[in-house]
Amino acid sequence: MEATMTQAHQVVEFLADVEKRFEQFCVTFNTEQSIEKNAYDCPIGPVRSAIFRGDVFEKASAVYCDLNIDTPPVLAEKMGWTGMKMQGLVLEIGIHPRNPRIPKGYIELRANVGDSVILAGGTDIFPYFYNDDDRIFFANKIRDLCEKHTVDYEELRNIRADFFKSNFRKCDVGYHAGIYSFHLDEKKFPFFMEMADAFFTAYGELVTKRNVEPYSESDRETQLKLHGQWAEWIMVEDEGTRFGLVKGIPPEALLGAILPPVATF
After folding, report:
1. Distance of CA 111 to the CA centre of its chain
2. 8-state DSSP, 165
3. How many alpha carbons lie under 13 Å from residue 43 in its C-beta half-sphere?
4. Residues 164-200: pLDDT tens digits?
5. DSSP letters of 28-81?
6. pLDDT, position 3
7. 218, part of any domain
8. Contacts for 242-248 with beta carbons within 8 Å, 24 or more apart?
């Protein structure tokens, strides 16, 4: 149990560091920006959010949750946990660029802490206009990360592809160049940490490359339409969002941070 508590503490410190890196990432690209930070005392634990609005990132947000929740029976059975409660640590970052030639960026890092620590989460980019060069570039960066840590890239990519899709619109949610895992052993904590490095590095290069490209009003209309479809998926199909709202996380904390800044339906 002592090792588990040490690991949980390390996860908390790591997620706090990623929040700081996210803020610096926004400052690096936005020459003009506003920042809105809020903290919420929710029934299942504290939640905080940070939203940046600027000339490059129309809206970039981070939501951090430290939750005390019931242990899902399926997880308890799978992991052999005996406790009825667990700690859920979640950091979700979404970056909506102003230029639709830049893909939307996303990373989610989470840890379930019970009798042991189970890591989860993933990352991907979301195109407004399909660009095979961007897809391959991001996929190669994540594949290299997986190979370095002896993690099966295709297995985790397929998990993402199976989950992040719209059952109503019959389309993908994201490029599926990235990865996702629901159960990652705590021994893979170094891989978990370096996922953040890979995201900021790869996405930063794409922002630098694509932000100089011109776009039209028609391009902007396409972007807003896709924002609408993304918002639909979050509010209608994403189980994690629904769970948070049902358990008492205020909509302004959860939806206010992760929904796109502007959308058409």
Report:
1. 13
2. E
3. 9
4. 888 888 888 888 999 999 989 889 999 999 999 999 9
5. HH-SSEEEEEEEEEETTEEEEEEEEEESSEEEEEEEEEEEEEEPPHHHHHHHT-
6. 45
7. yes
8. 244/65, 247/42, 247/43, 247/44, 247/67, 247/69, 248/42, 248/43, 248/44
Cα 195 to chain centroid distance, Å, stands at: 11
Where helices occur in the chain by DSSP H, the ranges are 2-29, 73-79, 132-148, 153-163, 189-210, 217-232, 239-246, 251-258
Are the CB atoms for 255 and 234 separated by under 8 Å?
Answer: yes
Range of the domain at 240: 2-258
Reading the block at residue 81, the tokens are 């946990």
Query: How many separate domains does the chain show?
Result: 1
pTM of the model: 0.93
At residue 235, does pLDDT exceed 80?
Answer: yes
CA separation for the pair 77, 74 (Å, rounded): 5
Distance CA 210, CA 218 (A): 17
Of the candidates 23, 25, 30, the residue with the CA atom closest to the CA atom of residue 50? 23
Q: Which two structure tokens, joined as six digits, stand for 265? A: 């339906």
Residue 113 resides in a domain: yes
**CATH value at residue 52:** 3.40.1500.10
The single-letter DSSP state of residue 186 is: G
* Cα–Cα distance, 210 to 219 (Å, whole number): 14
